[in-house]
Design brief:
The complex is a heterodimer of chains A (335) and B (495). Chain A has 335 residues and is an all-alpha fold. Chain A has helices spanning 2-10, 13-29, 36-61, 69-85, 90-113, 119-137, 152-159, 167-185, 187-197, 199-204, 209-235, 246-256, 268-287, 295-330, and strands at residues 143-144, 161-162, 165-166, 237-238. Chain A is globular, with a radius of gyration of 21 Å. Chain B has a 6-stranded mixed sheet with strand order 6-9-10-3-11-12, with helices on both faces. Chain B has a 6-stranded mixed sheet with strand order 18-21-22-15-23-24, sandwiched between helices. Chain B has a 4-stranded antiparallel sheet with strand order 14-13-16-17. In chain B, strand 11 and strand 12 (206-212) form a beta hairpin. The chains are: A mainly alpha (335), B alpha/beta (495). At the A-B interface, helix 1, helix 9, helix 10 and helix 14 of A face helix 10, helix 12, strand 20, helix 14 and helix 15 of B.
Chain lengths: 335, 495
């Protein structure tokens, strides 16, 4: 449905335009901006954010939110690093990290869908639990894995390239296409939108709401497991203390990308735009030698402006709609 | 008062005197509540004047109404759910000591009010934790503890038990004796006859007439309420009935709103379900659709259907369309196409993968077949008129292979043209061999296309009408009184 795609694109068209403007301005003022090395920088610095944001998009589409994603990722990093340290092979260690993430997400989903505890309470609690867990396992110590043999391929994932294309970019694109395909071409994806748009209607139409919700949070947990591979690869270590801004950046990217917190609207391609936009702005500030202290002010303002514009557009849209509807009523039967 | 496209009240004259209990009655949507809301200042009339004590008065908002002594108790509760009973009773007029709330006095006063009215609840209980009846009683305490000169009871008894209703009627009598004017809005005949001395009947926003009580017979009053001519946009077709396709035995909702109910529906038959709001007819739909937990036995086309789960009801061949389109049927921010295919995703997919091409094809066929007026399949559903939204909701259910269709208020909020089309679609589904349960608050609609009508009152089926016996007055009588006895003798007027 070409028109349908346009509908979704409309939600982040403004951000695309802003991205082009910012990128153009940086290209003119900063000679280093539009270099391949700098692009690789941006990809490297934003891959963890992107992977978490893909998972978060699924959750937000169902009108939920997963506050635990960044701290679960940190816990997964510790598990992966400890596995390497204990001499596990690559495959078992990676499977452990992914399973750990998925299990954490499943736990969230189960409590939310079956025990009917508010998603805010569950994921806020999980945020705290995993944060603490990551510190507890090695008493707050960073676990370096640089010299472990099995770590090699993970390191290669974040440093190597095929020709000029970084492996990491390929990894990101594969995940993006998988996520996009899942949303668009499967009954699971369709059910997410239905639940986010109107849970009761979805239930009465025969959608297994609790199974889908458990699946969604499990996917978000799996995303945390996948993101930890990149994080450990880049740091060459499992660090028990994540970037404190990570969760906020992830959620901001999802919002800026046009996925609505009220549910039922959005998509992973918008999220990618949101991640790129925030990444480019941050990169631009760094290149322009603006103190990193300013970055929070800038990205916070961008978030409010982007979402504010979305609200304005939606409101204008619903005003038009209301006017149209009342006109239809006063005009009598519409044939 | 003119609402967009609908005249809710049209040139109605009405007056009430001190110490008078005046009944205001009429069918759903006749304008009763609107008149009450004009009087208490919630709604501003487009034309006309209100006289209070002979003086022309503008009542611009409910606050001014209260200042004039006009107190409205409506069926929709207006309590602060997280506050205590006492705080609710004195909301907006809490006793204070120089700006600080006098909690001791509040407790004392509310205990006194609760005792006087006879409500057994602690003044410190949180209102949200009380059942609907007690909440309604708290609302009544609030009204009866204020210095009302005109008390409006807008279907105030709809959630009350018989004992509480009797107590309320007693209080009304006390108020009348003290010179308070009471306006009672209700379509429950026994109450009106027990309390009121005069009745005003509205129909379609117009004044039908005023009748003294109890001199006017119940039969006469009901005919004043419903006496409209049926417009023939139903185009009832004769459909040959087949075998019994739906057997319902002792279906009971766990919350007790639906009492043991049994029903048979044949293939090709349209069974109308009538009853007032709260009579249990809506719960019958929810129970058959699997939306609420219930006990009993439902057999569709010879196979028993598990209850309490929409997925099982669907698998068992039941297509259910809920009454509240916005709350439980539409995906408001999704496209027309997705709203159609919501019910078909299983059939349009293999191993979890959707066939988008099939979906597009089916959706555009459905848009044509159900005559949905939309710019495209990708338009957001809420850009459509209510009637077209409803055609999507009905169409997606009809397109499923269903043996039984359970439709709750399928024409609510739908304009006349679309209504006629929906009746046509319904009969086409019956011709296709489905058994149809049509639950509706609009009697003319049931009379127009149902083959048989069952009437709910107090959670159960009280009467069944067929063929020639399907008379509006007789059905309305059962719906209002719960009894099918001929209403010849008039109930005794209470004190």
């Amino acid at each position: 449905m070409g028109a349908l795609e346009r509908l979704e694109l409309g939600r982040y068209a403004g951000v695309v335009v802003a991205l082009i403007v910012v990128a153009a301005a940086l290209t003119i003022t900063q000679s280093t901006f539009l270099t391949w090395d700098n692009m690789k920088n941006i990809i490297g610095a934003n891959s963890v954010i992107l992977i978490l944001a893909l998972g978060a998009t699924f959750v937000v589409i169902t009108a939920g939110i997963d506050l635990s994603t960044a701290s679960l990722m940190t816990a997964c990093s510790m598990m992966l690093a400890i596995a390497f340290k204990s001499g596990w092979g690559l495959v078992p260690a990676v499977l452990l990290a992914l399973a750990f993430g998925a299990a954490g997400g499943f736990g969230n989903g189960f409590l939310i869908a079956k025990a009917k505890i508010s998603f805010l309470a569950v994921t806020l609690g999980a945020l705290s639990i995993w944060q603490s867990f990551a510190l507890v396992v090695q008493e707050g110590q960073t676990v370096s894995v640089f010299s472990d043999k099995a770590f090699g391929p993970i390191h290669n994932l974040v440093t190597n390239s095929i020709g000029p294309i970084p492996l990491l970019l390929i990894f990101d694109i594969i995940l993006l296409l998988l996520a996009g395909g899942l949303l668009r071409y499967t009954t699971f994806g369709r059910s997410l939108f239905a639940i986010g748009s109107n849970e009761e209607a979805a239930r009465l139409s025969g959608i297994n709401v609790s199974a889908i919700l458990i699946g969604v949070y499990t996917i978000a947990g799996l995303a945390a497991g996948l993101a930890c591979l990149v994080s450990v690869g880049r740091l060459t270590a499992g660090s028990p203390t994540p970037d404190p801004n990570l969760l906020l950046t992830v959620l901001a990217a999802v919002l800026i990308g046009g996925t609505s917190f009220s549910g039922g609207v959005g998509g992973v391609f918008g999220t990618v735009i949101g991640v790129i936009f925030l990444g480019v702005v941050q990169n631009g500030l760094t290149l322009s030698n603006v103190s990193s202290f300013w970055q929070g002010i800038v990205s916070g303002s961008i978030l409010i402006i982007a979402v504010g514009l979305g609200v304005l557009r939606d409101r204008g849209w619903s005003l038009r709609r209301a006017r149209g509807a009342s006109a239809a009523v006063t005009e009598g039967p519409v044939r | 008062m003119v609402f967009p496209g609908v005249v809710a009240l049209d040139n109605v004259d009405f007056s009430i005197g001190a110490g008078e209990v005046h009944a205001l009655t009429g069918e759903n949507g006749s304008g009763k509540s609107t008149l009450a809301r004009v009087i208490n200042g919630t709604v501003t009339p487009a034309a006309g004047t209100i006289y209070v004590d002979g003086e022309p008065t503008v009542i611009a908002n409910p606050r001014q109404g209260l200042d004039l002594g006009i107190v409205n108790i409506s069926q929709e509760l207006t309590l602060a759910q997280t506050l205590s009973v006492g705080e609710n009773i004195f909301l907006g007029r809490l006793p204070t000591n120089g700006g600080r709330i006098n909690w001791a006095k509040l407790r004392r006063d509310s205990r006194e009010v609760l005792e006087r009215i006879g409500v057994e609840v602690s003044e410190s209980a949180i209102v949200g934790g009380l059942n609907v009846e007690l909440q309604q009683m708290v609302e009544i305490c609030r009204a009866f503890s204020s210095d009302a000169r005109l008390l409006i009871l807008d279907e105030a008894t709809s959630s009350l038990s018989e004992a509480a209703t009797r107590r309320l009627l007693q209080l009304v009598a006390e108020q009348r004796a003290q010179g308070v004017a009471v306006l009672m809005i209700s379509h429950r005949m026994p109450e009106l006859y027990a309390a009121a001395s005069i009745a005003t009947v509205l129909r379609d926003g117009k004044l039908v007439g005023t009748a003294p009580l109890p001199e006017t017979t119940e039969k006469k009053l009901v005919s004043m309420m419903v006496g409209r001519e049926l417009e023939d946009y139903y185009n009832k077709r004769q459909v040959a009935q087949g075998d019994c396709v739906l057997e319902v035995d002792d279906l009971t909702s766990v919350d007790g709103v639906l009492r043991p109910t049994s029903l048979r529906v044949n293939r090709g038959e349209i069974v109308g379900v009538a009853g007032l709001v709260g009579s249990g007819k809506a719960e019958l739909g929810l129970a058959l659709g699997g939306a609420v937990a219930c006990d009993g036995r439902v057999v569709v086309a010879g196979r028993e259907v598990s209850l309490g789960d929409p997925r099982k009801a669907i698998a068992g061949g039941v297509g259910f369309v809920p009454d509240d389109r916005k709350r439980s049927a539409l995906l408001p921010n999704r496209s027309v196409g997705e709203n159609f295919s919501l019910a078909w995703v299983k059939r349009l997919s293999r191993r979890g993968l959707l066939n988008l091409r099939d979906e597009r094809k089916k959706v555009s066929e459905a848009i044509r077949r159900y005559r949905v007026i939309t710019a495209s399949a990708a338009s957001v559903i809420t850009t459509l008129s209510g009637g077209n939204q409803q055609k999507v909701v009905l169409g997606r259910t009809f397109e499923r292979d269903v043996d039984v269709l359970v439709l709750s208020e399928p024409t609510r909020g739908v304009d006349v043209g679309a209504k006629s089309e929906i009746y046509d679609l319904l009969q086409t589904a019956a011709e296709g061999g489905a058994g149809i349960v049509l639950i509706s608050s609009e009697l003319p609609e049931l009379l127009g296309i149902a083959d048989r009508i069952v009437v709910f009152y107090g959670g159960e089926i009280k009467a069944e009408f067929k063929g020639r016996d399907m008379q509006e007055e007789a059905i309305a009588h059962v719906a209002v009184t719960g009894s099918s006895d001929a209403p010849e003798q008039t109930p005794q007027k209470g004190t």
